[in-house]
Amino acid sequence: MRTYPLYSRTFEEARELQFKIVDSATRHFSGEEALDLGDLGVRPGTNRPHQTIRAEKVFADAFDAEDAVLVRGAGTGALRWSLVACVRPGGTVLVHDAPVYPTTKVTLDTMGCSTVVADFNDAASIERACAEHAGEISCALVQHSRQKPDDSYELGEVIQEIRSCLGDVPIVTDDNYAATKVMALGCQLGADLTTFSCFKVLGPEGVGVVIGRRELVERVRELQYSGGSQVQGHEAMAVLRGLVYAPVALSITGATCHEVAERLSSGELAHVRGASVANAESKAVIVEFEDEIAEKVLALAPAHGAAPNPVGCESKYEFVPMFYRISATFREKDPSWQQRMIRINVMRAGADTVIRILRELVEAVYES
């Protein structure tokens, strides 16, 4: 199978991002504040917890943006509020010719938005769609991670093409599963807003972040004015701690994925036809068996120490490797694949552990 996984930072590149984040933190927090678990409530003068404000400034610095705001609702909430800030109800949004992520579709449907479709792998398709709907499109939404197995587009090139066609029309990027792993997010490549879940960068559940152009970020912030909408200081500090440790941890994960795929493709394990790395949401190893044993392998996996299901796909809770069915987009591409393919998210495991578990599972299947 030919796949086009996103680039993963090397250890050295990830370390530099960690250092950049910590350097920013020393500029926005005093030493005492950095050790404070965080304040609560709508503080006089700011209407927000002070620790949240400081953490947001670090996020903006880390990704070279004018501003950032933490929001409730994880990545879904971040994307939803970004679309609300950029698109009027009933507006038209340019999207990739692929299944829209289910939670994003809920937002678009709720807002009564219509979509214009272009193949983001093809610049001519983008140009044609924009020309045919000139004056109609009020926002473009680009997902950084792959939506289909054969997606190969470079985010920066797509943003540049859309910008050349639509001018100042807002561009929003969904950077879930890419944040801290790749070298640049949407806002660093010319998009107006970048969104992702802080749960995907080792933070707490339920918090997302919107990063980018100050005018639009401030619009999102204004929509979070009530006390119950505020991300509290202690939550913001947990988000910040996760951001500090995510780059290096996730760079190791990316390198391990490639090692596992290379070893399996070289014939290290019997009954495995091949393996490849793909961004099936998060970066994972797609393993293809010679026979239709995928369901049996997955049924046995938990007893051998593998996680049977995701929590947040690389959340702070997930350290053992996950053996799981291939994603819906892969199944849609070819339904028969689910009978002979699985995906493995290595999480914090080493290649030896992943391959050892897979060997035990294959042997158990053929011995039964």
UniProtKB/TrEMBL annotation:
One of its GO terms (biological process) is L-homocysteine biosynthetic process. Residues 187-230 form the Aminotransferase class V domain. GO terms for cellular component: cytoplasm. InterPro entries: Aminotrans_V_dom, OAc-hSer/O-AcSer_sulfhydrylase, PyrdxlP-dep_Trfase, PyrdxlP-dep_Trfase_major, YhfS-like_C. Residues 259-358 form the YhfS-like C-terminal domain. The keyword Transferase applies. One of its GO terms (molecular function) is cysteine synthase activity. The keyword Ribonucleoprotein does not apply. Keywords: Aminotransferase, Transferase. Gene3D superfamilies: 3.90.1150.130, Type I PLP-dependent aspartate aminotransferase-like (Major domain) (3.40.640.10). It comes from the Bacteria. This is Aminotransferase class V-fold PLP-dependent enzyme.
